[in-house]
Write a structure and sequence with these properties.
CATH architecture of one domain: Orthogonal Bundle
Structural class: alpha+beta
Radius of gyration: 19 Å
CATH topology of one domain: Arc Repressor Mutant, subunit A
Number of helices: 11
Order of helices and strands: HEEHHHEHHEEHEHHHEEH
Shape: globular
Strand content: 5-15%
CATH class of one domain: Mainly Alpha
Largest sheet: 3 strands, antiparallel
Oligomer: single chain
Length: 256
Amino acid sequence: MVELGVGRNMVNAIQYWLQVARIVDFADGRAEVSALGNALLGPKGDRYLEDEATLWVIHWMIASNAELATGFFWFFNRFAMPRFREPDMREGLSEFVQQEFHVTRSQSTLKSDCSTLLRMYAPAPGQSEDHLDSPLAQLKLIESEEGRGYHSLRKVRPFLPPLALHFALAQRFSEDPQQVALPVRLLLYGGDDWAAVGSAFRLSEEGLMATLAQVMALYPHNYELRDTAGMHQIYRGSKMNAPLDILRSYYRGASK
């Protein structure tokens, strides 16, 4: 509180988001910077969030964290309305919580959760140059429509850094070492308990395949795309790198 000049509530918020993004691990009252935190924001990483790829990786860590960021996981992986208003979000989140956890959350809690998500990802309209949006608003995954609510559309997203998709795919494969291949449709829309990269990055099928082509060109032998029995699948390549090695190599190259 003294070093950063913030109050107790802000300290709790900082601690929470560091955990959600898996940048810091807390155990027995002690904080330790995680290996991911060092790779992303350490001396050899992107300490000041100057590289947009860093924001996409942080977004992926939040959107894929079903345990600590349940509402964010739900929105980016289960909420299918491309255009919506905040009450639509609250209703959808309430149904999800009831079905998945068999509990009922108060309207004030649901409203707070939805408001936090929108403030993090949707640029505030009509603000002066002095207004600071959340860094994640730069990703334009949620955009406001004046008088009409919000939209969060699946697109080609040509400016999505290949690193972000590469890291997310490698992490997905690493979490299940026995997984040899993943159907493209599963990566696009989900269907199991894992986060879907296509949903989290709001990619259309064309967008996923276009970014995947960039990944395969930049990082050869990490993945193979095959059509098996009429089903597009992404296979582990012969030289798949570990997720953290991917980050370390990227920032090492970016610093040169």
